[in-house]
Amino acid sequence: MKRLFVFRNLSAFQIILFGFAAIILSGTLLLMLPVSSADHVSCPPSDALFTATSAVCVTGLVVRDTWSAWSSFGQAVILVLIQTGGMGVVLVVTSIYLLTGRRISLKQRSTMQDSISAPQSGGIIRLSSMILVVLFSAEVLGAILLCPVFSRDFGIGKGIWFAVFHSVSAMCNAGFDLLGERGAYSSLVSYGADPVVNLVIAGLIIWGGLGFLTWRDILSKKTHIGRYTLQSRLILRMTLLLILVPASLFFFLEFTQGTVPQRLMYSFFTAVTPRTAGFSTVDLNQMSESGRMLMILLMLIGGAPGSTAGGMKVTTFGVLILSVLSVFRREKDTNFLNRRIEEDTIRNAMGIFTMYVLLFLSAALVISRIEALPLLTCLFEAASAIGTVGLTLGITPTLTLTSRLILIALMFLGRVGGLTLVFAVIPQMRHGNARRIPEKVTVG
Predict the structure, then answer these.
(1) Would you call the peptide bond into 229 cis, given omega within 30 degrees of 0 as the criterion?
(2) Which of 64, 98, 155, 379, CA to CA, is 20 to 30 A from 360?
(3) pTM exceeds 0.85
(4) Which of 303-307, 336-340, 372-376 is modeled with the greatest confidence?
(5) What is the pLDDT of residue 130?
């Protein structure tokens, strides 16, 4: 009874934190079983932990090629972990409650609200049901569209499995692939010129990264964009901006060889996948340093809050840009579409941005020192981990245990969210409503 009492007194942030940790531990134990490995030999705990964390945190960084190293059972475990991580542990539990007809308490509704970044707990059950229907419908549609391509190349049975696996992986922004037989860690390079694979995978990545609340606005209000919430409109505008601008830069500066349609396809997919899916249709080691730095920025930004994507979130980046513009214009408030952004939102955005940048830089510096690798390469890997992306320059399988543990910590932080981790660990400080005497400090 005492243990149950302690569990009931956990905050919503602590429940989310421990929920993800429990799923990762369970996945690690399953992947350590001999039946999970292709050679039927028990997987080392460090490899199993890294793979389970990457799957639950929908990252896609791997130390073992998913196709050649894992059996069908192991791949199925990874797929379930990806689906659980993409939905979120709380939403998975909610779906079980809905299917079994069990009553959901007010405490559980509050936890669900924090898990999917909903503005209020009212209507949370209806919203959760909508999310589940839309999520699985998109995955089924993606699998149907991918099935002819993979069935043509691998046969009916394997083609269906490949279609399902890659559809779920793309929708959950995970980046895991089963194309290792075409070259270990090759991702979608062999399909770089295939329009079906490019458009379907990119479409699932974008839809999964828009966020559950944006789905609701799109489905309920359709083309009446003026009636969308301010958050949805900011997400849609920032998403469009973060696709078009990088794609244009890649087209004119990076992918200068080949036909125009091929260059457009490479540029579009390379602009989409860093936020935050981890699939690649080009050899990233052949890209210029400026191209890699642009991808690092995109990986850190990520997708929308309450989505299957990670990163600091497009709303965080958007609010910071709007705040900077308000300073340049000498405006008292930060405004967007005739609405004022609250000061608490701006402070949270600054806190999240600072946390991500400091952790990302610190981790890269430590890994570079430990492994004696170029700093830019380590910056790319660290950004991929904390942004839960999965893109890699190929160094992850060669890293030592210490560096792998650093990436594991970054992936976990990137998935549960910086503020979730801070609020779960640090108790709320209570100083009453008293405000301190202000004094001017010069900056800049």
Answers:
(1) no
(2) 64
(3) yes
(4) 372-376
(5) 87
* Residue 158: predicted pLDDT: 95
Higher pLDDT, 306 or 389: 389
Q: What are phi and psi of 340, to 5 degrees?
A: -90, 130
Rounded CA-CA distance 275/240 in Å is 12
Where would I find the H helices in 332-443? 343-371, 375-386, 401-416, 418-425
Question: How buried is 120 (Cβ within 10 angstroms: 0-12 exposed, 13-18 middle, 19+ buried)?
Answer: exposed
Q: pLDDT tens across 68-87, in order? A: 999 999 999 999 999 998 88
Least confident of 12-16, 205-209, 329-333: 12-16
Higher pLDDT, 74 or 307: 74
Task: Transcribe 85-98 into DSSP letters.
Answer: HHH-HHHHHHHHHH
pLDDT in tens, 1-55: 344 334 456 666 677 788 889 999 999 999 999 999 999 999 999 999 999 999 9
Residue with tokens 């608490």: 344
* Confidence tier at 429 by pLDDT (50, 70, 90): low
